[in-house]
Amino acid sequence: MGKEQFLKQLKSSLRKLSTEEREDILHDYEEHFTIGLSEGKTEEEIANSLGSPQQIAKEMLALYHMEKVETTVTPGNILRAVWAVIGLGFFNLVIVLGPFIALVGVLFAGWAASISFVVSPLIELVQGVLYPKAFNLFELFISLAICGVGLLVIVAMFYITKGLIYLFLRYLKYNISLVKGGLKHD
């Protein structure tokens, strides 16, 4: 594959990036070709040493989405970063998607439990209105205590969520560096 074909494939694979970032990357790879040609290598040798344009684009997209998550942590950015890292290789489907699903499950369970604790007095009051003969003041006080525990759990879940997201993003970065390092040793 020659320089023009390599750069054309790389450009089409990077279409999800902004024009400015895409042009920066393409300029860097044009420099690789310029330096290689000045060292006496052929365009084919340079293209082969650089690797697959599609794999390069996958790595660049994964890094781009990771940088985006680091600046603005939103569920959408996290999902795009996870998807981009999974796209680096089939093995990542298990290595990244499994922990991501587990993380989402733990966070969902924690938030659901804390919110249900907080609304327990409301549920007790609704039950008292619907079934006045079954209303028990002791149960209302217990539900108020549970509500207090729920408020503490909500605060804890806020910090747990931030911490788990931070750890998972570090895991994604490690995975990207592992895949990139593995590809360099082919």
What does this structure look like?
The protein has 186 residues and is mainly α. It has two domains: 1-51, no CATH class; 52-184, no CATH class. Helix content is 84%, strand content 0%. It contains eight helices and no strands. The chain has helices at 3-13, 19-38, 43-50, 53-71, 75-86, 91-118, 120-130, 137-184. Helix 4 packs antiparallel against helix 8 and helix 5 (75-86) packs parallel to helix 8. The mean pLDDT is 86. The chain crosses the membrane at residues 81-102, 108-130, 137-160. This is DUF1700 domain-containing protein. Keywords: Membrane, Transmembrane, Transmembrane helix.
Summing up helix and strand content along with how strands pair, one would put the structural category as mainly alpha
Helix-strand sequence: HHHHHHHH
Kindly report the average pLDDT value.
86
Radius of gyration from the alpha-carbon trace, in angstroms:
26 Å
Runs in which pLDDT lies below 50 for 5 or more consecutive residues are: none
What coarse outline follows from CA principal-axis ratios?
A: rod-shaped
- The separation of the N and C termini measures 18 Å
Q: Give the helix proportion (percent range).
A: over 70%
User: Strand content of the residues, in percent?
Assistant: under 5%
Largest sheet: none
Beta strands, count: 0
Could you state the oligomeric state of the chains shown? single chain
What count of structural domains?
2
Topology of this protein?
Layout (H helix, E strand, L loop, with lengths): L2 H11 L5 H20 L4 H8 L2 H19 L3 H12 L4 H28 L1 H11 L6 H48 L2
Helix pairs in contact: 1-2, 1-4, 2-3, 4-5, 4-8, 5-8, 6-8, 7-8
Pfam families: HAAS
Keywords: Membrane, Transmembrane, Transmembrane helix
Protein name: DUF1700 domain-containing protein
